[in-house]
Write a structure and sequence with these properties.
The chain is of the alpha/beta class and 270 residues long. Helices cover 47% and strands 26% of the residues.
Length: 270
């Protein structure tokens, strides 16, 4: 039993009902960085005097848990952080259980603490890396779902496919504004031929995008117009300036309109 105790990689300590150490193993000596002769017979408050708020808090927390185990007479498992003699904070998975005599009376508390610092740090690093991968995938999907393609000098096109919800509508707006500003576009074509459903919410988002792009000095041309799209735009027409939104039935006609407008503008310039 002694060999098992001394060679265990876990910190093993036994305290009496007053919280004084009556048995520790070699790993506990290494953690405390004190020989056991200086530890046995002392409490946590004596071993870790209130030199700092952290040490006082650690000592008080250990004492409270010991008292709870003694009063309930039941084991307890928990994770804890322990500041060693060098001030290094280490993570432990601790099990504490009451020790009883032949009559069943509690005579002390045994604590077995296994260090999980490296394991926990590795898990946190894996979680952080996984989150980075998720964010990278999300960014890639966002870019693929809202591509902005330079079509000609001053003209960009964004072909939209699938369903447009509130989140994707915000992505469309952000990508569109950023692209128009960076490329100094004069016309931005939003092609919704591949959008499954265009309800009032989607129409609302499209008109908002047109208004925002207008503030940058460019025009939005909405192509792929179907009957239900026209109806949705008419229904919200009272609240938005639809004159800011040029509509065309097909992408080809939208491209022709955009290029024609740019050429007309260039020809009119002195």
């Amino acid at each position: 039993i002694y060999a098992v105790l001394e060679n265990s990689s876990s910190v093993i300590c036994v305290k009496d009902t007053l919280g004084r150490y009556i048995l520790i193993n070699r790993r506990a000596e290494q953690l405390f960085k004190r020989p056991r002769v200086e530890i046995l017979g002392r409490s946590d408050a004596e071993l870790f005097p209130a030199q700092s708020p952290e040490s006082a808090e650690s000592a008080e927390s250990a004492t409270q848990r010991d008292r709870a185990v003694v009063s309930r007479g039941e084991p307890e498992d928990y994770e804890e952080q322990v500041r060693d003699a060098d001030g290094t904070v280490r993570d432990f998975l601790t099990t504490k259980f009451p020790l009883t005599d032949a009559s069943g009376a509690v005579t002390g508390v045994c604590g077995i603490s296994t260090e999980i610092t490296e394991r926990k740090r590795a898990a946190e690093e894996r979680a952080a890396l996984q989150q980075q991968v998720i964010e990278a995938q999300r960014a890639a999907l966002r870019e693929l779902s809202t591509p902005l393609i330079p079509l000609a000098e001053g003209v960009v096109v964004m072909p939209l496919v699938g369903t447009i919800d509130r989140g994707r509508a915000q992505q469309i707006l952000e990508t569109l504004l950023e692209g128009v500003a960076q490329l100094r576009a004069r016309a931005a074509i939003l092609d919704i031929t591949g959008v499954r459903t265009v309800d009032e919410q989607v129409a609302h988002a499209l008109v908002q995008a047109a208004h925002a792009v207008r503030l940058l000095g460019a025009t939005v041309i909405l192509t792929g117009i179907r009957a239900e799209v026209a109806q949705a735009l008419v229904r919200i027409g009272g609240d938005f300036r639809l004159g800011e939104l040029v509509t065309r039935a097909t992408l080809q006609s939208g491209i022709a309109y955009a290029i024609g407008q740019l050429r007309a503008g260039a020809a009119a310039a002195p």
